[in-house]
DNA sequence: CTGAAAGCGCTTACAG
DNA sequence: CTGAAAGCGCTTACAG
């Protein structure tokens, strides 16, 4: 008879399920044997396995992952840090991301934070000894980056940049995206260009604008108007449109920093000012969220290669977990232009 | 000098942060003292506290929540189980829910499952010894419900029903919602009614339809057409509209089981068939997702009292965690009709 | 293949 | 207020 001394008899606190000790006692094997049955790859005789499994089933035993994590030093949990998100793009991101992670045997702990709380929230994530962290719509302060480096937790920035030497990055090539839009507008004969910015401080906004403006200039044009929505929302798009379209001479081509803004601009132009789109005004967005394809908008937009972004993020994360000392990865994924009817076609 | 024998000297594995033992040794106190400093409400002298805090800071010590969970038997994690969600309503739910939970000191572990995987995924959640579970867009099989009952994990169903005696429920009163729509249509003089169903097997769909049809009958009317979109999406709405609106004599009032379907129906009617909305056809949805208010749709809809639903869920959850033997709660929240221009006004 | 033992990093009576 | 000790439920060398 094996020893299994720790617990007094069959106690097992009322509110808790059975433990390995309970199973071991009833099955007449050691606690280690029970552990092995539930550890893939461990060597157990068929007889032991059967007996343990049967007792475990009878007792409703389930391994306590928390205890396992404590000794194995791995939780199989990934922290996904998102900022207050109104954007369907990020809802989708969470959706696909959690699913893809689950396929790899990982679970997702969501940290939903205001930008300012990052400094507090992230250390919390660390306390849970997550196996990795994905940061979305948030940038890492150098202090935090350092703390992460010290904790040796792999961090992947999603659609954000940083070049601190140990933070991995997976992002859409926003500069290239901005250039696609400039080319599309110019190729189809537009010549009064406007840009409606989203979050001024975000790298996504900066890069999209930079790509757009620089390509305009390369091809001998320039930006006529610049308006700021201030955030990536439909409502902000409406308001920006109101300001932008009260100009005496209107632009004939507007690039909006994301789709939601673009939809706000379209609706304001169409329903408040009776402007014909695309006859009088072409509008292009960024993201290709589902509603961009809706008949009421049919928005020309720069599609973020969603699946690729998520897949790359998972892959980078898995690589980093496997080899924490591997090289710092920086994956830039090319976007594509999806031409729909909110912008004039090539002439 | 305290003992702290377990560890050999200052080892602390290379890949890990400092532990209480490391801090204790350097601060010249016992490990228990360090623990007390990080346990709110424990009694520690000011001097000890200062010394420990200073050393902890110097070493970058952070409590290991996993270890704490193992002994305290509480993870401060809530499992949120969602089904593959395309609906912005649920994206919003996750958003608000995670935030509200964080305010209570809980974190959210997201389980994103296909309906069929529920049987596998939920036991996983249990293995993480989460403090509670919220189930969204999924129903609990009796086998699972029993397993949960045995695990003594509080479970709250969000917008789903079950009456098994131990599962809490927080839901919008979908039947009342359906009645609101019937009344609105009848009061404004419509008389050929159609219903476009979403997911046939969901209790939300069943109740909304039931409320709608029963109120029609109460007031001497009946349903003229019933079409099924089969799922709660825009695309399904388009297809359902195509089938529904090829009838020789059209309905003049369509109730769609949710907003996304309604938008699909509006777009199909308007852009493919040139039907005037609301002059020729009134359409009402359900949810009041953000895009329902967009100028291009301006959808009359039944607003789910979002904040109340989330608040109630959190509250029920907290109550159940505090008193696992408390009564089983069943909170039904009344929806309201938001009148916009996709439906004719009272005559 | 299997058991005894150590240990993961904590909390919490217990005794002072 | 404080330390010594037990224990949470596991995994994993170690020795057979």
Task: Describe what this molecule looks like in 3D.
Two copies of one chain form a homodimer. With 347 residues, the first copy, chain A, is α/β, with parallel strands linked by helices. Chain A folds into three domains: 10-63, Orthogonal Bundle (434 Repressor (Amino-terminal Domain)), CATH 1.10.260; 74-172 and 306-334, Response regulator (Rossmann fold), CATH 3.40.50; 174-304, Response regulator (Rossmann fold, 3-Layer(aba) Sandwich). Chain A is 42% helix and 17% strand. Chain A is built from twelve helices and twelve strands. Chain A has helices spanning 20-27, 31-37, 46-59, 65-72, 88-103, 118-127, 142-151, 174-187, 203-218, 234-244, 259-273, 306-322, and strands at residues 77-83, 107-113, 132-136, 155-158, 168-172, 193-197, 223-228, 253-256, 282-287, 300-303, 330-333, 336-338. In chain A, the strands form two sheets. Chain A has a six-stranded parallel sheet with strand order 2-1-3-4-5-11, with helices on both faces. A six-stranded mixed sheet of chain A has the order 7-6-8-9-10-12, sandwiched between helices. In chain A, strand 3, helix 7 and strand 4 (155-158) form a beta-alpha-beta unit. The N and C termini of chain A lie far apart (88 Å). In chain A, 49% of the residues are buried. Residues 1-14 of chain A have low confidence and may be disordered. At the A-B interface, helix 4, helix 5, strand 2, helix 6 and helix 7 of A face helix 4, helix 5, strand 2, helix 6 and helix 7 of B. The first copy, chain A, binds a DNA duplex (16 and 16 nucleotides) through helix 2 and helix 4.
